[in-house]
From TrEMBL:
Keywords: Cytoplasm, Glycolysis, Kinase, Magnesium, Metal-binding, Transferase. The record marks K141 as: Important for catalytic activity. Homodimer. Pathway: Carbohydrate degradation; glycolysis; D-glyceraldehyde 3-phosphate and glycerone phosphate from D-glucose: step 3/4. Belongs to the phosphofructokinase type A (PFKA) family. PPi-dependent PFK group II subfamily. Clade 'B2' sub-subfamily. It is found in: Cytoplasm. It catalyses: beta-D-fructose 6-phosphate + diphosphate = beta-D-fructose 1,6-bisphosphate + phosphate + H(+). The active site is at D144. This is Pyrophosphate--fructose 6-phosphate 1-phosphotransferase. Its EC number is 2.7.1.90. The gene is pfp.
């Protein structure tokens, strides 16, 4: 088998465990030097390939590669950049081929969510469309947990743990103050179309923690009158209420509660601000004092609270991506296949990118309670294993000790390219 170099890059919003997948890719590639030469990492995702900004990962020590497993965020830089079709932007694909040829790259590993799967699929088609041999394997990652085929997505389990824990702790706080002060706490979480993260707030309450939680899902159209009645009933029963609202919560006409009127680089409506909208709605209608918070980057960067299962799966999927490529596979994605809930057992399988790219996995309606404001036991059975286990990073002077890589770029061999 001819030794070829590899390209690895991170894409989209980062997570607490995306670097664990990078660790899995790099450590596994280093174990197969007879087949994989140098792994070049794209500086800031696919843009690194287009601009020929390639990080030589062979210059990174084994210790620093290992430390990626417990370091949050994207160690190589990420981006939000979705390549258009070959027909609409042939020059970018020709540029990729030029860069791949110049650096003898035969393997392409792209670590990201749905839009990244689409980019990976397009790159995988270069062999047929443009006569260049490249094996493209997608490494799944997204806190939104909305990729099909895989049981869950790396990054989601840790976010779910963070939201469940934060909702419980904030609820304890509000419960202690509600007699004379705040009665409402609103936590806004990510989730444009799928309510997986919001659902995790339901784990705050269990048999030992009778906590009043109302969840606003993207899957359930927002009914203001019904919602206010539900909150008021909780306050009258418990003295307080915690609300977890997904940024994707919307009115029957499709307008988001949090819509700002702007759009991101992918053309998606830019969201942010559902929590204050909901909190003020309650204050105006019911008169209850409130506090609100937006989890935002905190939820996806909280490596100190990552679940062990999430870390293990993120690493395993990075490792499996390399193994699939070595088996000669192209246009595929390794996936988590659940075998059982109790005890929690899983294994690594795979799916084809044509069945994954541009497909969103929504939360099943049977996971949402009949009133539309909570989770069912089936949902709890699905979520619970994903937040279990602790995998703390090492600490030094009271702070988590993370690795910051010194990016050593390889020399450029091609003329400059403009995006």
């Amino acid at each position: 088998m001819t030794v070829k170099n590899a390209f690895y890059a991170q894409s989209g919003g980062v997570t607490a465990v995306i670097n664990a997948s990078a660790c899995g890719v790099l450590e596994t590639a280093r174990q197969h030097k007879d087949k994989i030469g140098t792994v070049y990492a794209g500086q800031n995702g696919i843009i690194g390939a287009l601009l020929e900004n390639l990080i030589d990962t062979s210059k990174i020590s084994d210790a620093d590669v290992a430390a990626l497993r417990h370091t949050p965020s994207g160690a190589f830089g990420s981006c939000r950049y979705k390549m258009k079709s070959l027909e609409k932007n042939k020059r970018e694909y020709e540029r990729l081929i030029e860069v791949f040829k110049a650096h003898d790259i035969g393997y392409f590993f792209y670590n990201g969510g749905g839009d990244s799967a689409d980019t990976c699929l397009k790159v995988s088609q270069l062999s047929d469309a443009m006569g260049f041999p490249i094996q493209a394997v997608h490494v799944p990652k997204t806190v939104d947990n909305d990729l099909p085929v895989t049981d869950n997505c790396p990054g989601f389990g840790s976010v779910a743990k963070y939201i469940a824990v934060s909702t419980r702790e904030a609820s304890y706080d509000v419960a202690s103050m509600c007699a004379t002060s705040t009665k409402i706490f609103v936590l806004e979480v990510m989730g444009r179309h799928a309510g997986w993260i919001a659902a995790a707030g339901g784990l705050a309450a269990d048999a030992d923690n009778d906590i009043p939680v109302v969840i606003l899902f993207p899957e359930v159209e927002f009914n203001q009158e019904k919602f206010l009645a539900a909150v008021d009933a909780k306050v009258k029963q418990y003295g307080y209420c915690s609300i977890v609202v997904s940024e994707g919560c919307h009115y029957p006409d499709g307008k988001f509660l949090a819509e700002q009127g702007t759009r991101d680089s992918f053309g998606h409506a830019q969201l942010g601000g559902a929590a204050p909208v909901v909190a003020n709605m309650i204050k105006d209608a019911l008169g209850y004092k409130f506090h609100w918070a937006v989890a935002d980057y905190l939820q996806r960067a909280a490596r100190h609270l990552s679940s062990k299962s999430d870390v293990e799966q993120a690493y395993a999927l990075g490792k499996a991506a390399v193994e699939l490529a070595l088996e000669g596979k192209n246009s595929v994605m390794p996936a988590v296949i659940r075998d059982s809930n109790k005890p929690y057992k899983w294994h690594i399988g795979s799916g084809e990118l044509k069945d994954i790219a541009n497909v969103e996995k929504m939360m099943p309606m049977e996971y949402i309670s009949a009133d539309g404001y909570g989770i069912t036991e089936a949902c709890r059975d699905y979520l619970q294993p994903l937040i279990e286990g602790e995998d703390y990073p090492p600490y030094e002077n009271g702070m988590p000790k993370y690795v910051t890589l010194k990016h050593q770029l390889v020399g450029k061999k091609l003329p400059a390219f403009e995006l």
